[in-house]
Amino acid sequence: MIAVFLTFFCFTIQSQNNCNYLFDNNWILGGKDDTIDGDKYGGTILRFDPELLITEYNKHVSQRVTSAEISSREGNLLIYSNGCDIFNSQNNIIENGENINPGEVHDLFCVDNDGYPGLNSMFILPSAYDASIFFLIHIAETINHSPDPAFSIQAQYVYSTTIKIDKDLGIEKVISKNEILLNDTSMLGSPICAVRHANGKDWWILTPDRWNNGYYIFQVDSIGPSFIREQYIGDETNPRATGAEGKFSPDGSHFAWYHPRNGVFLYAFDRGTGYLSEFNRIDIPKVDFITGGCEFSSNSRYLYINTDTSLYQLDVQANDIQGSLMHIADYDRFGAPLPTLFLYMALTPDNRIFMNTSNGTQYLHVIQNPNERGLESNFTQHAIKLPTINFLTFPNFPNYRLSAINSSYCDSLNAIIDSPNTVSDVSIFPNPSSGIIYISGPENPIQYEIYNLNGMKIQNGVCRTWEILIENPGIYLLNVFLKNKWEIKKVMVMR
Hints:
Elements: H1 2-15, E1 26-36, E2 39-48, E3 52-57, E4 68-71, E5 77-81, E6 86-88, H2 104-109, E7 122-126, E8 133-143, E9 153-166, E10 171-183, E11 193-196, E12 203-208, E13 214-220, E14 225-232, E15 245-248, E16 254-259, E17 263-270, E18 275-282, E19 293-296, E20 302-306, E21 310-315, E22 326-330, E23 342-347, E24 353-357, E25 361-367, E26 379-390, H3 408-418, E27 427-429, E28 436-440, E29 446-451, E30 457-463, E31 467-469, E32 474-482, E33 485-493
Antiparallel strand pairs: 1-2, 2-3, 4-5, 5-6, 7-8, 8-9, 9-10, 11-12, 12-13, 13-14, 15-16, 16-17, 17-18, 19-20, 20-21, 21-22, 23-24, 24-25, 25-26, 27-28, 28-31, 29-30, 29-32, 32-33
Helix pairs in contact: 1-3
Protein name: T9SS type A sorting domain-containing protein
InterPro entries: Secre_tail
């Protein structure tokens, strides 16, 4: 029975293939339609179909630094947000889509559709369990009214907003809004990043703590988004590193983020357990600038880092990652009329890397061949001219095409469940059970998760009574978090 269970569970993971999804097919840049003193303001849409098509996109809202959009699986724009409201492809606020990120900061910045001020602070995730459901994950800021505050505006909430879109039925509406996943002014506020779970269905989300070396980790599963844990690893964050950019590698094996006050923080990542490991800090020549960018090549080997005036490349597969640091280019002093200084980077669906500028300009820089080493990567400055001025706006997409793996998660199940000699801190009884499971272990309370045969999480929470109820007969995986690790147990419920 155990062998049959594992075979079925691992097959479910492997069969979740997302390779053809085009959720990131449209990038919306720019602001409100307007022309001031001869400068062309307004929206621009970049569509990868598969050749890049750039067109002016008339809209009455500005996205500024806070931007999220998502397309259908087939690549047609569905919705976008500027951190204030949620709009459809016709630029209309969808049903119940107004007033996300409520509070003083919203009221201060969202007047006249000007856009929320959070850098790299939101994205949209599709549900793998219902094709009509999407989760907008967004960070809200608050004004600190305490005397002599260290930061006058600081991140406070990680919110989840659930959106239902069914074009056949004409449904575009928010079904739950501003649900609090985390309320903690200790978080840095940027970056917040997502990556597919090893099962190819769920998502992991993480964002750094401002005051230490912690990372807040969330999971999106069949139940929806929830906060899982805070993990402490590596060097402490500089509390003034707000505005950093972070990215998971396209294969999900690494997480990196960069701010000039930190340097590069690089970790290995386990998509099965959601844990960071193997911390590396890479020093970049210091600059006095408030933001910095980073992005991985599509083959996940090279990590690009930019200050406002310089671009570098790292080989994350090198034995000496610090020693692999290579200078690629410096800003060429081009201006039209404002300098096209470097800001953030994003991997495109056609495997190039685009870079926006830190001023309101009509230009994007491009790394044409990011899978190549050094200067062969072919960095071209101001390579793309946009029809309208773009003021800092850039997408924060995860890799929607990352599929399930059959290594870390299934291998860990085989190792734990099949081995008769496994030493465990957890005892479960009775097993088989009529539905009530008792847990014996060294800690109280304990965090737990329960998965069914399809790899779907059916229950999770914090157990304080050492008693868990599973209502339906079947075979389940019970994951219990003890001593900073997950203990995985097979449970059988019989009636």
